[in-house]
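Q: Convert this sequence to structure tokens.
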Amino acid sequence: MQTGHFTGFEVELRDNGIAWIQFNTPERLNGLNQAIKRDLIETILQAQMDNAVRVLVFTGTGRAFCAGDDISGQGKEIGGDALVPPIPPGHDSDIGTYEGLRHLSQTLNLAVRNCDKISIAAVNGVAVQTGMTLALACDFRIAAESARIGSATLRFGLLPDEGGQYLCVQLMGVAKTMDFFINKRIVSAAEAMDLGLLHEVVADAELEDRVMAFATEIANGPQVSTRLLKRSVYNAYDMTFEQSLDEIAAKTAISDHHPDAREGGTAFREKREPEFNQWLKDSG
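A:
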């Protein structure tokens, strides 16, 4: 995948195949626009198809993870190179808004969720609206103690139009989601943890080290089974029990016959830690 500084974010491929994607416009609280979203979608696709990448981490710079869309900067260059040429930002009419949401804003969260590799949101600060939805689309969320999370779109007469309502129902249930959106709540990291929106809260100074340790643990695990399991868990949410049984059986037919499964069994019998992912080393 391409690494370096791009419009609105930068990409670094760290040890163990951890793609560190960091928003880099703290003066705008890392607000996103349509051009940034399209480049992020391309980055995620590159990560999906690159065997060198095992885990994706999204985080921010400064006091925000991402404070929503940068409305004042929509369609404007904000510095750095772009992965692809500029495109119209949309939202110039009712059909423009529909198309902008369907093909860019919502597609970003779909790209995160559809990427088979595990994604982690390292929520370093404010995550609202677009930022909140992006974090919730990730598989894991670890936040700094000072982080705040919410949508509050009703303050502006707007809707959580990038899938926030679905993701919150998935994580909190209907009653808590209704309270969250109708009462325009922006909550502390501790309260977000209690609501089920976060997996872990750590001291601000410990966030990067903790996320890197967690990402490394996942990266060193059996990548084929991990990716199949991610897909199966999300599929199960929308399936009947019988459908999910059939779905996991089909994936197990792959994982059971993979070299990682043989290594796992051998390591157990030999009372040692398994050394997974030899196939990735061979392909590199």
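Residues 12 and 20 are 5 Å apart (CA to CA).
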